[in-house]
From TrEMBL:
PhnB-like domain boundaries: 2-134
Superkingdom of origin: Bacteria
InterPro entries: 3_dmu_93_MTrfase, Glyas_Bleomycin-R_OHBP_Dase, PhnB-like
Organism of this sequence: Rhodoplanes azumiensis
Protein name: VOC family protein
One protein family per Pfam: 3-dmu-9_3-mt
Length: 141
């Protein structure tokens, strides 16, 4: 069994993918627009004016796959009650990613040292996706 996040970005999917490519070095594995569907949509199933919007996409972030869509294309994505955890190597990488995600986003908990991690912080990016950044403490050799 595998659990993979699926983000419905409500019309901002392509913008989010470009941001995640720049921020994380995400790799786009697949992207299909509504107009490219091999089967016609049922009446009322495709949002009006959505031909060029993303019906389904898959990106890789490190070893993980994240799926994305424009969904209903209404422009108001919500991600209440869910956060994606990023476990990174090193404090500098944690700080870099936190700053990038906070740019245009909302800091939920400033990044800093905690009893369980060398660096930990929570931030919602400019699309409303909540991220928890964790830099594990280096083990003593």
């Amino acid at each position: 069994m595998k659990v993979q996040p699926y983000l419905f970005l409500d019309g901002r999917c392509e913008e989010a993918i470009a941001f995640y490519e720049t921020t994380f070095g995400a790799d786009v594995r697949m992207l299909m627009r509504f107009k490219d569907s091999p089967e016609p949509s049922e009446p009322g199933m495709r949002p009006p004016g959505s031909d060029d919007k993303v019906m389904h996409a898959e990106i890789t972030l490190g070893d993980s796959v994240v799926m994305l869509s424009d969904g209903n294309c209404a422009g108001h994505p919500t991600f209440d009650g869910v956060s994606l955890s990023l476990i990174v190597d090193g404090e500098a990488e944690a700080d870099r990613l936190f700053a990038a995600l906070a740019d245009g986003g909302t800091v939920q908990m400033p990044i800093g040292k905690t009893f369980f991690a060398a660096r930990f912080g929570m931030v919602a990016d400019r699309f409303g996706v909540s991220w928890m950044i964790i830099a594990q403490p280096m083990s003593a050799s």
